[in-house]
Specification:
The protein is an alpha+beta fold. The protein has three helices and two strands, in the order αααββ. It has a two-stranded antiparallel ribbon. Strand 1 and strand 2 form a beta hairpin. The protein is globular and about 25 Å long.
Length: 59
């Protein structure tokens, strides 16, 4: 997964905010719901944390 690789290689360093579902959907040419699912998967695996109203951040 590209987002996981970006976290691992420091493109998205610890504490950084991930782009939202709509920008990610444009970048990867997928539906926003698909991008949101990818971010949820990262959250379930403990790589990111969501802060309602603030965004999703790398742990």
């Amino acid at each position: 997964m590209v987002l996981e690789q970006r976290i691992a290689d420091g493109t998205y360093p610890k504490g950084s905010r991930l782009p939202g579902a709509v920008p990610l959907s444009h970048e990867f040419n997928v539906a926003p719901s698909t991008a949101a699912k990818a971010v949820r998967d990262l959250k379930e695996r403990g790589l990111v944390t969501a802060s309602p109203g603030w965004g999703t951040f790398v742990v």
